[in-house]
Design a protein that fits this description.
With 121 residues, the chain is mostly beta strands. The chain has one domain. Helices cover 14% and strands 43% of the residues. The chain contains two helices and seven strands; from the N terminus they run αββββββαβ. Strands 1, 2, 3, 4, 5, 6 and 7 form a seven-stranded antiparallel β-sheet that branches. A hairpin with a 4-residue loop joins strand 2 and strand 3. The radius of gyration is 13 Å and the shape is globular. It starts with a helix and ends in a 6-residue tail after the last strand.
Length: 121
């Protein structure tokens, strides 16, 4: 899968509210993507809630999930879909679910390509 294909699949997952999986830095990751953008350095990045798989710190579960940024590139394996977001437990923290504010990307994001607003799930 090329980087362009990864970007298109991540964008589709965001717009269709799908959870996905890929290997990143050697660890399997299961996630719900929230934002796809271009960082100030020109790299494409996805902001996602990881709820399964692993990381350099060990296993990740739905109960101990975390928001993470993943750069599209050689560290990211093929991207695939696993489920609709609303079928995944705890896909985002309760405090964010109650937010009535639109998503504000961090300052290192120069351009947003696709985003799921919290109230849309």
């Amino acid at each position: 899968m090329t980087n362009e294909e990864k970007v298109e699949e991540l964008k589709r997952q965001i717009l269709e509210k799908r959870a996905g999986s890929f290997r990143y830095q050697g660890h399997p990751r299961t996630y719900c993507p929230h934002m796809l953008g271009v960082a100030n350095d020109g790299r494409v990045v996805v902001h996602a809630f990881q709820f399964g798989g692993g990381s350099s710190k060990g296993p990740v579960t739905a109960e101990k999930g975390a928001w993470r940024f993943f750069y599209v590139g050689p560290d990211m394996g093929d991207v695939s879909e696993v489920a609709r977001i609303n079928t995944v437990p705890s896909w985002y923290p309760e405090s964010l679910a109650k937010s009535d504010q639109p998503y504000q990307p961090p300052k290192f994001i120069a351009k947003v390509i696709a985003v799921v607003e919290f109230g849309e799930v």
